[in-house]
């Protein structure tokens, strides 16, 4: 009886040990799959004027010929100042080697929708994913050199921000999963607003000329459905950072 008791006791201990070990492994795996969620640190409303009108007003501003009404319009153009007339920024030393998309809508006679449009500093052109449905799992991937200045901010114009109507007609991103050097890094929680949304993402990049090229990937996880189209759209996704002064 003693031997049987010892066997049952040892067997019970082994079962508990295996169960605890299994729970530990599951916990570790779940922790590896978890990434931080980030909300925008600043949100700037899109101006009502077009890029062409902004360029026209910029020329008049340089010549000191703006009317009071036009001066008021220009004060509302902080996003355009960032896109079209930037002061010294990450792009003084930083550069993106390539932008790739997982899919995009077929081009028309007037427009194309490939991923490069998300980084051409033109809010009126867009990347529109071309998969069936609303593009869950579709992505943009940016490539950088090893010596590129480090990135600390990701800025996004979410949806087709050219005007209010096309913005509402097309789907927008709700959650964007960010991969750093091929590994899940963060989830960007975007507001459903026709705005520039600025995310502080830590310090990214080796900043070493001898290091290999590296990537940031942005994958659509959830969307805000459009009133008319299922296509999910990003107008611009660009960066700010350090190591440029």
Please explain how this structure is put together.
- With 245 residues, this protein is α+β, with helices and mostly antiparallel strands.
- The protein contains five helices and eleven strands.
- The protein has helices at residues 2-33, 51-62, 68-75, 78-84, 164-169, and strands at 36-38, 42-45, 98-101, 127-128, 139-144, 151-158, 172-180, 183-189, 195-204, 214-224, 233-241.
- The strands form two sheets. A six-stranded mixed sheet has the order 1-8-7-10-5-3, with no helix packed on it. The chain has a five-stranded antiparallel sheet with strand order 2-9-6-11-4, with no helix packed on it.
- A hairpin with a 2-residue loop joins strand 7 and strand 8 (183-189).
- The longest helix has 32 residues, at 2-33.
- The chain is globular and about 85 Å long.
- It starts with a helix and ends with a strand.
- Mean pLDDT is 88; it is low at 17-22 and 24-32.
Topology:
Blueprint: H1 2-33, E1 36-38, E2 42-45, H2 51-62, H3 68-75, H4 78-84, E3 98-101, E4 127-128, E5 139-144, E6 151-158, H5 164-169, E7 172-180, E8 183-189, E9 195-204, E10 214-224, E11 233-241
């Amino acid at each position: 009886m003693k031997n049987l008791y010892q066997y049952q006791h040892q067997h019970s201990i082994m079962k508990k040990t295996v169960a605890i070990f299994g729970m530990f492994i599951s916990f570790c795996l779940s922790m590896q799959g978890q990434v931080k969620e980030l909300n925008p640190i600043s949100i700037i409303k899109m101006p009502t004027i077009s890029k062409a009108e902004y360029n026209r007003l910029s020329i008049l501003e340089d010549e000191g010929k703006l009317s009071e009404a036009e001066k008021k319009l220009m004060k509302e153009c902080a996003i355009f100042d960032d896109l079209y007339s930037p002061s010294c920024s990450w792009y003084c030393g930083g550069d993106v080697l390539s932008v790739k998309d997982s899919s995009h809508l077929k081009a028309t006679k007037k427009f194309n929708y490939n991923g490069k449009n998300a980084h051409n500093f033109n809010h009126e052109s867009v990347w529109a994913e071309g998969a069936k449905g609303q593009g869950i799992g579709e992505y943009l991937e940016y490539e950088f050199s090893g010596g590129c200045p480090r990135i600390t901010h990701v800025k996004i114009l979410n949806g087709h921000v050219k005007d209010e109507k096309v913005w509402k007609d097309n789907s927008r991103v709700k959650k964007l999963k960010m991969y750093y050097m091929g590994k899940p890094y963060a989830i960007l929680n975007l507001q459903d607003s026709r705005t520039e949304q600025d995310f502080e993402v830590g310090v990214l990049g080796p900043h070493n000329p001898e290091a290999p090229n590296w990537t940031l990937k942005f994958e659509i996880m959830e969307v805000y459905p459009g009133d008319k189209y299922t296509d999910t759209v990003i107008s611009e996704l660009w960066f700010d950072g350090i190591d440029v002064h």
